[in-house]
Amino acid sequence: MILRFFDTTKTNEFADWIVAEIQRAGAPNEELRANTKKKHAIRAQGINKNIVQRVAEFSQTTRLNVYKKASFAARVREGLTNHGYSPEFVRSFALDLIELIERAKTAEKKRPDSLTI
Question: For residues 8 and 68, what is the distance between their CA atoms, to the nearest angstrom?
């Protein structure tokens, strides 16, 4: 029972999926940001919808304690940093994900379809 508290297998897989989704969608890192702003802004809307949906599904199937949330955020930060994203973007994105998970958890209690970004 106590070992499940520290088991971050599912959260690590989900964090890796989020980093891969951002990479796959072509979200600009610092090198690309200067010359392709408009195209990436349009893609970001699609990324947000996809991530919001998956976060809602993930929060319904997986209980996250404090340790798992911290591990999840750290894994996302590390993955995005390794792909060349700015520290400001990485920090902001990780915090937004944690906030989205919290909102998904409270929206699930109220009404499952009430989650918006």
Answer: 6
Confidence of residue 9 (pLDDT cuts 50, 70, 90): very high
Angle between helix 9-25 and helix 37-61 axes, rounded to 10 deg: 160
Integer Cα distance of 83 and 23 in angstroms = 8
Measured between alpha carbons, how far is 58 from 97 in angstroms, rounded to an integer? 12
The total domain count for the chain is 1
Q: Which of 57, 82, 58, 87 is nearest to 72 (CA)?
A: 58
The answer to whether position 47 is within a domain reads no
Residue 91 lies in a domain: yes
Summarised one tens digit per residue, pLDDT across range 73-90 is: 999 999 999 999 889 989
Residue 112: exposure state from Cβ atoms within 10 A (0-12, 13-18, ≥19): exposed
Q: Is 81 within a domain? A: yes
Give the structural domain span for 114. 63-117
